[in-house]
Amino acid sequence: MSEFEHGSQSQLDDIAPGDEEGAKDIGRGVRGYLIGLALAAGLTVVSFYITRSTLVWAPSIPIALSVLAIAQMGVHLVFFLHLTSGRDNVNNLLALAFGLLIVMLLVFGSLWIMSHMNHMMMPMDKVMQMQR
Amino acid sequence: MSATAQALQGASMARGHAAGLSEEGEHGASKRIVVAYGFWIFLISDIILFAAFFATYAVLTDSTAGGPTGKDLFDLRTVAVETACLLLSSFTCGLAGLGAQARNGRLFHGAMAVTFVLGAAFLAIELHEFAAMIEAGAGPGRSGFLSAFFALIGCHGLHVTAGLLWLLTMMAQVVAKGYRDDILRRILCFNLFWHTLDIIWVGLFSLVYLVGVAL
């Protein structure tokens, strides 16, 4: 029974995804969302700007855009979904980390395998010749 | 304690759970945490679904079959307006969540209404974009690239549509049932869902549209 009692004490150490720690005050909540909105809007504007300008060396633009996208996703996670590195958020963070592992395997694995297959494949005209 | 008594106790505990009688589970976590965490797991699986669609798109970007490429088709002004709509709607959705927490009806309903209008505007622009592309002979049947494009962006659009229906349901439920605990939990889940759709859109506008135009 003592385990259960301990369990109900430890609920202070958990927080629901999306809930902000100890935020009952609307003013504080709105301020958080405003900061998030400003940061996200800033990153979005930079993304659109560098696509069209010559500010960034052209071949590196896709990498720059990926970095900006990841930064903006981070801003959304922290300011809109209230995901922090705090002790009460460990479960939420671990679930997300596992999801990201699968996402990375899926995306980079597919790109890697398919580019290799394209590389290894006989050019189409050669295939045609062999069928003749 | 006999085995029968234990079994009986177990059964009654299970029944209490199934009926949702206790707001607190035996293991301490409140129902709000359990429900939101479960929904979080669902959202992560949804992100993995989008990753699969995105991987397909990334593999097929160059398979245009002699047809139009992203550079020919994507209009960045449209995408900028769509992005602004979705980002602002994510913000107002957060405000609606705060309104619900504070049981402030005017903030909740006002912010939800603005969220709906912005979400609907996003969807209308996207459908218009799709219609114009299909009109110009660049429909999903044109090339592998376009099939993957319509599947990926369309999947996000379907999620937004579902989110809009859910949003209206939540407004109606608050009117009909008030700020009960179960309604507040649903609003929290809706918030998580809507913010996640915006996060996915960040990936889509950056890596599909902007990279498509830049390359």
Task: Give an overview of the whole structure.
The complex is a heterodimer of chains A (132) and B (215). In chain A, 71% of the residues lie in helices and 0% in strands. The longest helix of chain A has 31 residues. Chain A is mainly α and 132 residues long. In chain A, helix 2 packs antiparallel against helix 3. The N terminus of chain A is likely disordered. Chain A is built from five helices and no strands. Chain B has a single domain, classed as Cytochrome c oxidase, subunit III, four-helix bundle (Four Helix Bundle (Hemerythrin (Met), subunit A)), CATH 1.20.120. Helix content of chain B is 81%, strand content 0%. Chain B has seven helices and no strands. The longest helix of chain B is centred in the C-terminal third of the chain and has 34 residues. Chain B is elongated and about 60 Å long. The interface between A and B is large, with 54 and 58 residues.
Strand-helix topology:
The complex is a heterodimer of chains A (about 130) and B (about 220).
Chain A: H1 2-9, H2 26-52, H3 61-80, H4 90-120, H5 124-131
Chain B: H1 3-18, H2 31-60, H3 70-73, H4 76-101, H5 105-135, H6 144-177, H7 181-214
Helix pairs in contact in B: 2-6, 2-7, 4-5, 4-7, 5-6, 6-7
Number of strands of chain A: 0
| SSE string of chain A | HHHHH
Whole-number radius of gyration of chain B?
Answer: 22 Å
Taken together, the total number of domains of chain B comes to: 1
Helical/strand content category of chain B:
mainly alpha
Structural class of chain A: mainly alpha
The first-level CATH class name of chain B: Mainly Alpha
Instruction: Specify which chain pair forms the largest interface.
Output: A-B, 54 and 58 residues
Which stretches of chain A are low in confidence, meaning pLDDT under 50 for 5 or more residues running?
1-11
Largest sheet of chain A: none
What's the quaternary structure here? heterodimer
Q: What is the end-to-end distance of chain A?
A: 80 Å
User: Which outline of chain B best applies?
Assistant: elongated
| Mean pLDDT metric of chain A | 84
Strand coverage percent of chain B? under 5%
Percent of sequence in beta strands of chain A = under 5%
For the record, give the distance between the C-alpha atoms at the N and C termini of chain B, rounded to a whole number: 72 Å
Radius of gyration of chain A: 23 Å
Biggest pleated sheet of chain B = none
Discrete helix count of chain A: 5
